[in-house]
Amino acid sequence: MSSDNQWSAVEDEGQLSRLIRKSRDSPFVPVGIAGFMTVVSYGLYKLKYRRDQKMSVHLIHMRVAAHGFVVGAVTLGVLSSMYKDYIRPRFFDVSKK
Fold first, then answer.
1. Residue 73: how many other CB atoms lie within 10 Å
2. Which of 10, 17, 26, 53 has the most CB atoms around it within 10 Å of its CB?
3. Main-chain phi, psi angles of 4, to 5 degrees
4. What percentage of the chain's residues is helix, strand, coil (to nearest 5)?
5. For residues 44 and 53, what is the distance between their CA atoms, to the nearest angstrom?
């Protein structure tokens, strides 16, 4: 086997520096993570006061809310990326003319 494996991970990159690098590439990833954590925290808080609601129904509602927030953040990220890559250069770049 060759030692020049291009798919190997960078050894000196830590988790925090990797998260910072990824958040610069796509800024809505930290928004999705924060929203997910907020929904989970709220769900754990409300778990104590769920009254007569079944546990499984409560967990399903919290899972749907967390997934909805993450999907919304990803959708906003894709729309932002499409705007930066396609719409803004096409209509607002006057240097090409």
1. 21
2. 26
3. -95, 60
4. 70, 0, 30
5. 14
CA 42 to chain centre: 18
CA-CA distance, 52 to 47, in Å (whole number)? 11
User: Is the CB of residue 45 less than 8 Å from the CB of residue 34?
Assistant: no
Tokens standing for 45? Answer: 């808080």
5 CA to centre of own chain? 29
- pTM of the model as a whole: 0.61
CA distance 88 to 94: 11
Tokens of 72: 């919304």
Is the pLDDT confidence value at 86 over 70? yes
* Closest C-alpha to 72, from 20, 33, 15: 33
User: Is residue 35 within 8 Å of 69, Cβ to Cβ?
Assistant: yes
Average pLDDT over residues 13-33: 82
